[in-house]
Amino acid sequence: xxxxxxxxxxxxxxxxxxxxxxxxxxxxxxxxxxxxxxxxxxxxxxxxxxxxxxxxxxxxxxxxxxxxxxxxxxxxxxxxxxxxxxxxxxxxxxxxxxxxxxxxxxxxxxxxxxxxxxxxxxxxxxxxxxxxxxxxxxxxxxxxxxxxxxxxxxxxxxxxxxxxxxxxxxxxxxxxxxxxxxxxxxxxxxxxxxxxxxxxxxxxxxxxxxxxxxxxxxxxxxxxxxxxxxxxxxxxxxxxxxxxxxxxxxxxxxxxxxxxxxxxxxxxxxxxxxxxxxxxxxxxxxxxxxxxxxxxxxxxxxxxxxxxxxxxxxxxxxxxxxxxxxxxxxxxxxxxxxxxxxxxxxxxxxxxxxxxxxxxxxxxxxxxxxxxxxxxxxxxxxxxxxxxxxxxxxxxxxxxxxxxxxxxxxxxxxxxxxxxxxxxxxxxxxxxxxxxxxxxxxxxxxxxxxxxxxxxxxxxxxxxxxxxxxxxx
Length: 473
Ligand SMILES: Cc1cc2nc3c(=O)[nH]c(=O)nc-3n(C[C@H](O)[C@H](O)[C@H](O)COP(=O)(O)OP(=O)(O)OC[C@H]3O[C@@H](n4cnc5c(N)ncnc54)[C@H](O)[C@@H]3O)c2cc1C
Ligand code: SF4
Description:
Layout: H1 6-9, H2 20-23, H3 36-43, H4 53-57, H5 64-72, H6 76-84, H7 90-96, H8 100-104, H9 116-129, E1 145-149, H10 153-164, E2 168-172, H11 193-205, E3 209-211, H12 222-228, E4 231-234, E5 240-241, E6 254-256, H13 257-268, E7 285-289, H14 293-304, E8 309-313, H15 340-343, E9 347-349, E10 352-360, E11 363-377, E12 380-385, E13 391-394, E14 397-400, E15 404-406, H16 412-415, E16 439-441, H17 444-447, H18 452-472
Parallel strand pairs: 1-2, 1-4, 2-3, 4-16, 6-14, 7-8, 7-14, 8-9
Antiparallel strand pairs: 5-15, 10-11, 11-12, 11-13
Helix pairs in contact: 3-5, 3-9, 5-6, 6-9, 7-9, 10-18, 13-14
The structure holds flavin-adenine dinucleotide (FAD) and iron/sulfur cluster.
């Protein structure tokens, strides 16, 4: 156990964020880094609970009390080894995970939780800087070949583990660079793309073959891959966006959030210039429809592009400031989240339904909205319009951030005629096997859009199943 009285003596201390009036002028990471001494003190707050609810709530089963104890004692290397035992990419989750572990931390019942996420990223960054992390190619190759399609966190985790087991892995990606939504979705101010490159470089040195710019199902058929490889892992994500099909949808200036965000990622990496960016908020009034994390990422990006103003609207009610009786500890707290992007200057409204887009000369100039009221009847929510509440919100750029409905079905999934579940995600059995022999699937393409940590967990699970399958074949 860390310090037996640590949580009584030491208060939670976060690294904090770069000053607002500095960070909105660039796309670099917002979160700062705490010095090692303070970080070890933060680890001392962990009580090494008999039943560690942090561990219970972590999708990759991180051994949180164990590495907190090692971190407190200053044994950073041993802490890293325990961390890497369950998580291939703590440098991603340590930066952008919503940290359900902290919501479930026992201290969170009546005090502030342990800084688990920040401790995680501190351990892995120290491991990189001290050289504890080195390429470790497998000593023996099995002679089996695996194709992983899709290089997001699920595909990367599956490729990493399968390669470490000795199988020869080729990771295929349709985009110019690997990383999935980590690279073309999540803004650089949350996750620097150098962090992805560092990990991919390591994987390449360990023997993973990465082939980008290849759309499987188009440039190479899925059936060809099935002939050429001993097993296939599909990890193509869930990126078919939810649309808002109302009057005026055809007007110019209405875009999916992902188109907007990925273009800025490409500008940041020098793949295109700012002048060539066809969707920019510079000098515009921006309206983001959708109150979730993707919407929040649009807010921060629009502010950095120098929007005149940014408004974010959500049809659901404003979440409470504290947990409600039907959302107790240790479950994830469904409470109001104010992201760093919101702090940077955005007006937020809830209970607003979008009625129609308004435009002049084919360009959007605003949306008509009206207020709604939510009622809970027999455990189900229903919505009523509040009469007389119609109003206009001015906007000359509208970003649709209402989530994703299922994987892109055209191309690979149709070609292989894979069975889908009732949400139109890829259907798999308990071994992550699809309806086709030797074709497995993982990540958002199976679960629907979720989180990086869940995608990593799914990638780890599918790698184990593929390994078992290859050992039998
Ligand atoms: C804007 C945004 C912000 C987010 N922020 C967070 C966050 O802060 N924290 C968090 O935990 N989660 C966040 N998420 C969710 C998280 O990014 C996803 O849950 C996660 O990336 C899913 O991983 P995946 O590997 O299943 O799929 P993806 O990351 O979607 O990767 C799938 C990859 O497959 C490739 N592909 C698809 N079809 C083919 C094909 N036919 N051939 C070759 N390649 C193909 C795609 O190009 C893509 O690179 C965010 C998502 C978005 C959109
Ligand atoms: S629940 Fe919190 S205090 Fe308990 S072991 Fe986990 S991190 Fe430590």
